[in-house]
């Protein structure tokens, strides 16, 4: 009689499968995979820069609060550090960004289709929240040292409700989380206004106004 029962073998293979699928990083075969941005990005990220040309600078980014994207009308500055901006993250399954908002600043409702997010408030007072798939809102007002979670794929937002500047750091469980911002997606496109109105239940004149604001056509 064998000591190993068939269901133990299945369990064994299941554990191997889980271990494999949970290691999203290339660390299984190499220490790191600094992205080679000159080659196209595939489903698993960028291909690796030759280790012989990798230096400390590939793992270093100077000042995450020196923003690389500014949105003056909504008093928002972002610094994205996804694998495209910070290739040292390629394949490691993590990334981050900084958010700075002036008074009245807004991070519009958006989703990250490929990663969970956890935010840490560094400065200011920020009203944050997400909406679950059963349309329940989970919100909180956070201040320096406070943490909040946005589960993958769910619509979420942030508002600076304090009198001064607000700073937030966001960390992602993926090196290429993707961003889809609701207003830009709905009103920055070239679908006919009628169709946008049909699928959003908004009046045509409202759609046209929003298309003008967000750079949409038709
Ligand atoms: C944006 O922030 C600046 C200060 O950083 C403030 O003077 C201004 O009133 C804010 N604008 C809006 C629309 O809230
Ligand atoms: C879509 O919107 C247009 C213009 O508002 C309207 O005439 C049309 O009937 C709508 N189509 C549907 C299927 O509701």
UniProtKB/TrEMBL annotation:
Predominant localisation class: secreted
An example Gene Ontology molecular-function term: manganese ion binding
Annotated compartments: Secreted, Extracellular space, Apoplast
Binding site for Mn(2+): 110, 112, 117, 156
Entry-linked SUPFAM superfamilies: RmlC-like cupins
GO cellular component term of the entry, any: apoplast
Signal peptide extent: 1-23
Domain named Cupin type-1: residues: 62-208
Disulfide partners: 33-48
Domain of life where this protein originates: Eukaryota
Pfam family, one: Cupin_1
InterPro entries: Cupin_1, Germin, Germin_Mn-BS, RmlC-like_jellyroll, RmlC_Cupin_sf
Entry keyword set: Apoplast, Disulfide bond, Manganese, Metal-binding, Secreted, Signal
Stated family: Belongs to the germin family.
Name the UniProt record assigns to this protein: Germin-like protein
Species of provenance: Dioscorea cayennensis subsp. rotundata (White Guinea yam)
